[in-house]
Amino acid sequence: MAYTITLIPGDGIGPDVTEATVRVLEATGVEFHWDLAFAGDRAQDIYGTPLPNYLFDSVRKNKLALKGPITTPVGSGFRSVNVALRKELDLYVCLRPCKSYPGAPSIYKDADIVVVRENTEDLYMGIEFRGVEAARLVRFIEDESGDRVKPDSNFSIKAISASASRRIVRYAFDYARKNGRRKVTAVHKANILKYTDGLFLSTAAEVARHYPDIEFETTIVDSMCMQLVRAPQRHDILVLPNLYGDIVSELCAGLIGGLGLAPGANIGDDIAVFEPTHGSAPKYTGQNKVNPMAMMLSGVMMLRYIGETEAADRVESAIAKVIAEGKSVTYDMKADRNDPTAVGTSQVADEVIKKMKE
Ligand code: NAD
User: Fold this and answer.
1) Of 118, 139, 153, 162, whose CB count within 10 A is highest?
2) Residue 307 Rama label (left phi>0; alpha psi -120 to 50; beta)
3) Ligand 1: which of 94, 124, 256, 280 to mutate, most ligand atoms within 8 Å of CB?
4) From ligand 1's centre to the CA of 291, what distance in Å?
């Protein structure tokens, strides 16, 4: 069976890591038809918009996409092209596993955390006020609550709903069951944000009651950051509202050796877009320099999602071997970032393919 996948190479380092990943995925023997689509800067140049209709048509038709990082073009009218893409396709789960591989540049040896970030609401809805509207809000707040807000304030609205909280927490528990995980921790700041994070927390506790086989824990986000840095191995699945999820997933990427090793996926009810956690790192554009492993591991997630488990295992163990050997790795995997023995993006792909064939 051949899979048709929308392929979005992206901007900056996107095309380099995408090319490397496509070669590795094709070397598994699984058959893919790639439906090429552009987004971000590249699409802006070609179509005059960073999110052309063709992109949405293709992802909706194929239900699966492999995506490189994209840059939001200045003046395109988008706050973030990525956020707009996730919103339009209702990709409400941002799934970011962070796992230690022996040989990775990290002091932690046994982290295996899965970050489940809510992807559609919270401060990322982009509801902001300034100027006359902000002044009106200042007066409204004073009239309604008696609280004094500085008259020169701007506002960003944090919206958290029971329905979005429920579906993300359910996803985290279902993921735990499907993947033999033991514990889900809901991360929040409900001691301060009683109505928004308070709602997330109470909804999480309500959902947890339906999963008695999975341990449920709650932790305040600042305490979670400290715990993660001290003992990441104590944590399993973390479920978080959008902003904390964004921040904590980069923290977790740091724990396992950096952005070059942090894969991800944005998932909705029937569509999934696989992409690394990192951005388009424009300064390395076209240099064949950065680490393609985060994108390759996103490809591994895609293989597992479509049920090609054996191919996924083969790619992941080949990547693990390359990391453990420490020879054919990019600069970010070396103790000294200027190490002259670091190889380029495409040489990493060559080595992973070689290991898959051994
Ligand atoms: P970034 O992740 O692109 O880069 C930060 C730094 O991390 C880089 O300078 C580099 O040193 C390192 N890095 C990132 N990926 C790496 C890799 N694969 N191998 C080795 N080192 C790597 O973050 P940024 O500089 O804040 O953002 C650059 C652009 O990317 C912005 O336009 C931003 O909007 C966009 N972005 C896109 C996505 C996405 O498409 N999903 C996600 C985040 C940021």
Assistant:
1) 118
2) left
3) 280
4) 11
Q: Which two tokens stand for residue 133?
A: 């509207």
Per-residue pLDDT tens for 288-318?
999 999 999 999 999 999 999 999 999 999 9
User: What would the two tokens of residue 272 be?
Assistant: 């999934």
Angle, vertex CA 304, rays to CA 299 and CA 309, nearest 5: 115
Query: Binning pLDDT at 50, 70 and 90, where does residue 147 land?
Result: confident
Lowest-confidence segment of 68-82, 93-107, 184-198 by average pLDDT: 68-82
Cα torsion through 31, 36, 38, 42, rounded to 10: 110
Enter the pTM of the model. Answer: 0.96
**pLDDT at res. 340:** 95
Lowest-pLDDT range, 65-74, 139-148, 197-206? 139-148
> What ligand 1 atom has the least distance to the C-alpha of 278?
2
Cα-to-centroid distance, 261 and ligand 1 (Å): 12
With CA atoms as reference, report the closest residue to 57 among 265, 267, 269, 271. Answer: 271
Question: Which residues contact residue 17 at a Cβ distance below 8 angstroms, ignoring those fewer than 6 apart?
Answer: 68, 276, 290, 291, 292, 294, 295, 296, 345
The DSSP bridge pattern shows strands 265-267 and 272-274 to be antiparallel
Q: Whose CA is nearest to atom 1 of ligand 1?
A: 279
User: 44, 124, 259, 284: which to mutate for ligand 1, most atoms within 8 A of CB?
Assistant: 259
Rg (CA), the chain: 21
Structure token pair of residue 72: 């939001």
Tell me: the pLDDT tens digits for 266-282?
999 999 999 999 999 99
Share of the chain above pLDDT 90, in %: 96
CB 83 within 8 A of CB 50: no
**Which stretches of 231-272 are DSSP H helices?**
242-255
DSSP 265: E
Ligand 1 atom closest to 264 (CA): 41
